[in-house]
Design a protein that fits this description.
Jelly Rolls, five-stranded antiparallel beta sheet, 1 helix, mainly beta
């Protein structure tokens, strides 16, 4: 509805007024333009993760492992022959212990072998391994004694003449590795102008003491000879429990020692002992060097 107000422009003007209203049509509503959006990209579904843990089976028998190649021997000791190797990632079944509990008995390609516990580790049910009797130890070769020179004299009706003998050259064999038992004794020969080394093993409990008898096979014309000795030890219980010396051992590994030999005092025993109380497996080496000899 519309209201129209009329007002005369002059009061003197009178009369009627006719108003004609002409429609111009219905108003038109123009719809707004609709924007067209591109379709959203399709996101592939996330992969499903399997979070179920993988269980590593526990060995049903006792197995021995190593981090590097380890010798498999015919018996529980380094004086037994090597029959193969225990390699990393290739464990062997264990079915027993040596009497000193330092060596494991293993099944090596169907043959009984032995590996050292100092360079291996066990996995599986290994708590009740039985103690086995080890094979017989190898018999050491006999030691060849040094030859003894006897002067030869030629007699005539005149003054007896001594035929000079040439200077003898001695080749003293190095003793082979012998069977290690408690209080084992070794004989080791040395000469005036040559250094020597002697290496063996002791363990505690079990083979805990060695006696090495040192003697000079050739004095080289000297009335007395001085030798410098040193003992180096490797293994568990080496520095703490291993002692050495003449008579009652009183020196630790790495302590030097000097010995004087004469033809009348030509046998000096050296004792190497691991006195416990902790279990130990020790390799020791005695280095023997001749000191400068005065002429």
């Amino acid at each position: 509805m519309y209201e129209v107000a009329l007002r005369p422009i002059s009061p003197e003007i009178t009369g009627g007024v006719q108003i004609t209203v002409t429609g111009i049509g219905e108003p038109q509503i123009v719809p707004a333009a609709t924007a067209t959006l591109p379709p959203l990209p399709t996101i592939p579904p996330l992969p499903t993760l399997d979070l179920t843990p993988t269980l590593v089976p526990t060995p049903t028998i006792c197995m021995v492992f190593s981090n590097g190649p380890v010798n498999v021997r015919f018996g529980p000791g380094i004086n037994f022959d090597i029959i193969g190797s225990l390699l990393p990632g290739q464990p062997l079944p264990v079915f027993g212990l040596s009497p000193d509990r330092i060596w494991y008995a293993v099944n090596f390609n169907g043959v009984q072998g032995w590996v050292s516990s100092t360079v291996t580790f066990l996995n599986g049910p290994c708590a009740n391994l039985p103690v086995l009797v080890s094979p017989p130890t190898p018999t050491p070769l006999p030691t060849t004694p040094a030859p003894t020179l006897t002067p030869t004299f030629v007699f005539s009706t005149a003054t007896a003449t001594t035929i000079p003998q040439p200077t003898a050259t001695f080749v003293v064999p190095v003793p082979p590795i012998a069977t290690i038992t408690p209080d084992q004794t070794f004989n080791f020969g040395i000469v005036y102008n040559e250094g020597r080394t002697f290496t063996e093993f002791i363990s505690y409990p079990g083979q805990y003491r060695d006696i090495i008898n040192l003697s000079v096979a050739d004095f080289g014309g000297f009335a007395a000879l001085t030798f410098n000795l040193n003992l180096q030890c490797l293994g568990n219980g080496a520095m703490e429990q291993t002692m050495w010396g003449t008579g009652q051992p009183s020196q630790e590994c790495g302590t030097p020692l000097s010995l004087i030999f004469t033809p009348d005092s030509n046998l000096i025993p050296i004792t190497v002992v691991n006195q416990g109380p902790l279990a130990a497996n020790v390799q020791y080496t005695i280095t023997i060097s001749p000191a400068p000899q005065p002429r």
